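Quick start: read one record
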Amino acid sequence: MLNITSQYPLVIALLFLAISIAAAIFSFRKSHLSKQKKYALIVIRSIAYFLLLVLLLEPALLTLAKLGNETIDVVLIDNSRSNFLPGIQGNTKTGQVNELIENNTLITGNNRLFLFSNTIDAIPSGDNISLSYDGYETNISDALKTLKTTVTGQQVSSVTIISDGIITSGGNPVYEAKDFQTAFNVIGIGDTVQKKDVVVYDVLHNERGFTNTAVTIKVDLRSYESVNENINLHLQREGSTISSKSVLVKNNPALDEVTFDITESTPGFIKYRIIADAVNGELTTKNNYFDFIIEYIDNKTNILFISSGPGYDNALIESIFKRIKNYNITIRTAKNKTDFYEGGIDYRSFGELSAVFLLGFPEPGFNADVIKNIAAKCKEYNVPVIFFAQKNSDYRLLDIFEDLIPFSISRSSGESVTSLNIINPPGNNTNKLPNELNNSVQVFKNQVGIIQKPGSEVLMTERSGGEPIFITRNSEKTKSTAFLGYGMWRWRLNSRNNNESIAEKFIIETVNLSLIKDKKTKLRVYPVKSIFDYKESASFTAEVYDDEYKLTRNAVVTANVYSKDKKFSQKITFNAEENIFKASIPGLNVNDYIIEAEAEINKISFAKDDNRFLVDTLNTEYKNTRSDFSAMKELAHNTGGNFMTAAEYSPGLLKKIENPEPAMSHFHRNNLWENKFVLFLIIGLLTIEWVVKKRNNLP
């Protein structure tokens, strides 16, 4: 059987055929040849043109290949770790499976046996069958996908699954089973009665947190047959207990949410474990813990505070900055037209700055070269600029900052006093400026004709004339904010309203509004999950960003993976897949690992990043300890099979399909645009046309 396939619709091929015929007719419409020769040349050229055009559609020739007519019965045996849990009537699940195998009716004739968890492994034929029961997850859907390719072209009269029905990964297997067009029988093992147990089922947490900021985690604690018992829950950090709580079980089953707050002072990757003390008589303690990793990012906000000189506003804002713990402030107060009291500006530090805060700076006559250097470094390192006006601010010199300032001024005016009015721009519900600023405080201003720059938003106006007084702008590369009022020191005079506290809130929110929340990095490497099982491959993803912070594949990404105890080290190379890079390492031993990645562009080091991950024996298979046959019964019902428990099993209960079709048809794909015979055909057709034209003196 032959089939032609393409990723493009048939109508495109028909259009190409019409174009080819039209072009051929047009070429020979005025030739003096006989009708027979003219029609022959039109056909030859039409076919040649059509073949050339249709190859653009990337067609492929599919040929059906049947691999054989042997009729087989497949037996899939659940190989997951949950089989070590107790079964029914004192027997373990492994004991139930062993009894079924020893029965010999499942391993005779044309039966083919496989172990499965998330894939399948063939069990060699013979009398001594050894089962390991070490699968770290149960994914029947993926196991059936693998089985399809294994039995392709063979006639499968039945599939028998031996399982406790607890699916820990993947979707409903009914959809995959339909492709087999055969009966699925299920032999259920284990007990559907819930035993006494305590389970740390899940921990909800952020993968990233900030230093010196509390991170709240929520523990999903489940307990069964444990009413009126106290469960002691502990939070461990790198193996040491840092917090404990006790939970009184009030219901059966009980679903409790327990919260812990964690604060770290230094950045890095920290491993935590939530663990519950064993309860007397519980089924297993293998599900009493949950491990996770949180990456902490430095939450220090580095601000360069440049003031036009000593003054009341300067003293107020400087005192606010100094008492906020998360602010690391570098102060520069103008002493004269070129120097600062605290010394010169360290331009090398701009790469670490979170923002530059200009209070009334620059003042008239200040050295333009210094201002140009500050502006240039802000642009180079995408540092947000915050400008607070003062009475003596020089807006002409401020224009040196260009797009780093969100406004321009058309003219000056006399000094006036105004109240403030907070507004929310259309579609913007994120204005968090303190509501107390409305009417309760006043400021001076001496500028009118405020012109917003493109992309800016007005978050506050003066109440009397409606002129913008607080403007923010978020461009592609940086952020900027401006407050055009001054005289905040007067807020201190009204102690009844605690206006200094309002000033502090105002300063904090202005800085937060201006910060770039996610500091851009040019390389990110991360494991696809923080904890792998030792039976699976550890997989990683890397993203490389160019100078415009767009994803690029124009890089070579390598990494060194090593254990923290230095007993293992291996270099890996990532493969580009579209705009991301992927790599994996199979068979890592249980340990704590670091991955250090580097991206090179044009053989020059471009960026580096690192991450942490664990390899352990996952306890996923112990989270649900009660057999659940609902999906298994649905599978048997929808495929014409039968469901039975291990105690009910009898060979006569297994349903089969007589004279089944092959499980799946297997096609060989031949890409026509890579086929040399198609190329030879096109060359041959054009050669024949050339010969005919030459013999008839046609150009």
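The radius of gyration is 37 Å.
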